[in-house]
Write a structure and sequence with these properties.
Oligomer: single chain
Largest sheet: none
Number of strands: 0
Order of helices and strands: HHH
Distance between the termini: 23 Å
Helix content: 55-70%
Strand content: under 5%
Shape: elongated
Length: about 70
């Protein structure tokens, strides 16, 4: 979940405080959660949290590039 917030706030500079929930970010979070669970079985030098966070941030960036959100 923090990876989605990092992408939104620090990289995309979106102010989402007025929005109760963002369906696209919820779907990205779910994909990130599933990837996290799948990566738990993979042995990497950096663990499985960092690769999952990078994947989730990249998904947020790709989703924004594919269909930009309207600014409020």
């Amino acid at each position: 979940m923090i990876a989605v917030q990092i992408a939104d706030h620090f990289i995309l500079h979106r102010d989402r405080f007025a929005v109760a929930a963002d369906a696209r970010n919820l779907v990205i979070w779910l994909v990130g959660f599933i990837a996290y669970r799948l990566l738990m079985g993979v042995d990497t030098p950096v663990g499985y949290t960092l690769p999952d966070m990078v994947l989730t941030v990249v998904l947020c960036l790709l989703a924004e590039k594919a269909k930009p959100t309207k600014q409020m």
